[in-house]
Amino acid sequence: MIGVPSLQIIRRNYRRVAVASPIHSISERYVDVDCHNEATMFMSDCWTRLGISDWLREWNQTTPVCSDSSRCCSSDESWSTCFLRLARGLGGQDCTTVNDQTCTWDNRVSEYLAPSIFDEVRYVVKSIYGVHDFFSSYFKALQYATTQTALMITPLTNVIDPNSDTMLGLNIMMFVLSFGLSFLLAPTVAVKFFSLSNSLRYSAQSFALSMQQAPAVARTMWPTGGEESRTFQISSLNTQLNNASMTLSDTLDRALKLLMSDVPSFVSYAQSGDYCGNETIDIATKTEGLDLALRTYVTSESMKQNGWYAVPLKISTEEEYQALVDAAPTAKGWRNGSDVVDKIWWSPTTGRQYSLEHSGSFTVSSRDLMESIDNFGWANIPTLFDGSYNCTAAGRAGSAAKILPLFDGSLDVACISSLPIYRPCGSNCPDKLEDGSCPFGFKENCDSR
């Protein structure tokens, strides 16, 4: 009967309150939900229907800290470790660290639990394991994703940067890896996102929603330190990726430790119910696209530092765009025709046309370069162009903050792309800042023409 009195007392003093405007889970909604039947599968709706957010906060506020840990939480014990010990009637489970092998879900709770709290306890226990398993599987997936990025470096540098002079930011590299799952939800990525598996799409949506609900957790994953002092040459990217495993583990551990040691953060993060439902959020083998943000950053930086830039042209519908050429554009958005129009890319996301240019001599044409990027998956092309345009229009071009964390935990990923956006001489400003100035500069010295 270890820990049972504590849970019984708390439940007797607890008064269920109505939960107003609950945040709905992304997982499938069930019309007939029986949250009190242990024989039925777990359902994400039950977090809200059982009022678990308020129940868990109440448990946290009223559970005493004392030396007799059989009836309370010890001072050196996280709330999640204490809860699992009291709920299961045995200790030895620690879910505060990524990949901890003692944190194993087996659907077991103490037979001595008071019936009045049995369902709430069962769903909190499931959520603790669910959150831990997500972070552990995400770490494994990111480890694999780094190996995929490593495979692209040699062919990319051969085409864009044969001298391997490009300098990259270590903090940025780690950040875009850590939030690689959120990147798949960016508007400029959405066109390809829907070709991903249902499991990965569900995981990305759950992760993004949880981060928005718990911005304090998201902040633990933001980089620290000055970016200017943490740069490396692209030729050593493979070495940096090989060393990334420990940093990724530390990054995810910081977020997980906060969740497992702070009940308000855990409630905010898990209140969607996605971590206590029947569908398991396990992406250890669902790695498609997780390194897309990193690939886009590396490719755009290589293009920028080797003289490539884009010129924004007019916005047009697909029909208007097709009317400009004899044949319809290719699936990649390129016009068919002369050398001039071969530089033009049309964005299916924004409808804007861009001309890809290069300063100086270069052996690869604009079209050949972009086809290589698309065929080999070196970058997300809409983010490469539209993302950089949006970053410039916001006045943040050239900023070291490639990803801008927002107050709600979501991300502005426009500046992942470093491709410079210039306007031609004599052209109007395509987008002005609030003060009336134009953030889009000229590539050339127009006064000398």
Short structural description:
The protein is mainly α and 449 residues long.
The major beta sheet can be summarized as: 3 strands, antiparallel
N→C terminal distance: 87 Å
Structural class estimated from helices and strands:
mainly alpha
Q: Share of helix among residues?
A: 40-55%
Descriptive overview:
43% of the residues lie in helices and 6% in strands. It has 17 helices and 7 strands. The strands form 3 sheets. Strands 3-5-4 form a 3-stranded antiparallel beta sheet. A two-stranded antiparallel sheet has the order 1-2. It is elongated, with a radius of gyration of 26 Å. It starts with a helix and ends in a 37-residue tail after the last strand. The model is unreliable at 1-6, 8-31 and 327-340 (pLDDT under 50).
Please render the helix and strand layout as text.
Elements: H1 4-13, H2 46-49, H3 52-62, H4 79-88, H5 118-160, E1 167-169, H6 170-178, H7 180-183, H8 190-193, H9 198-213, H10 215-219, E2 231-233, H11 237-242, H12 244-261, H13 263-270, H14 292-305, E3 308-315, H15 318-323, E4 344-346, E5 352-358, H16 366-375, H17 381-393, E6 404-405, E7 411-412
Antiparallel strand pairs: 1-2, 3-5, 4-5, 6-7
Helix pairs in contact: 3-13, 4-5, 5-12, 5-14, 12-13
